[in-house]
Fold this protein.
Amino acid sequence: MGAVVMYFAYKIAAAGMMLGAASLAAIVVIYCYEVLARYVFDAPTRWASDFVTYLLCWSIFLVMPELSARNAHVSVAILTDRQNSILSRILLRLGAAMAFLVSLATAYISVLESFRQIEKNVTTMAAIPVFKWVISLPITYGFFLSAVFFLARSFDPDHRKEEIEA
């Protein structure tokens, strides 16, 4: 994969990481506001719980590509650790290729669903309705960009982010 493509993919993933962190910060602020409003002013909000749920979805899928880029996802390495280095590298490449295919297929399904939601103006069934595509679009982003990093890792299991950014 081209170094330029990977460079921009890493930059986009870093921006997603920042937005994911901002989503988590917003969750904290909203929860604190809800607790204050509910228990101090006896005026609970109608929207806080729903928006925390939406922001949690955003934070997970905005951070996912950065974790894939760093190879920081959860893995069970018992098969690769017990093999010689050649077989271990083959298994790592196969695992990355499978992760690429699953991530790409999931991104495809997600983008189709997002377009359907846009076309039909689907909203959430909440106190304050929100267009569902606003919530589901980060799912497409997370799986598609993760697929890019898994594809790079399937060609080079030792692929390092730092080498591209240097």
Remarks:
- The two ends are 16 Å apart (CA to CA).
- Residues 31 and 48 are 7 Å apart (CA to CA).
- Residues 3-165 form one domain.
- The chain has one domain: 3-165.
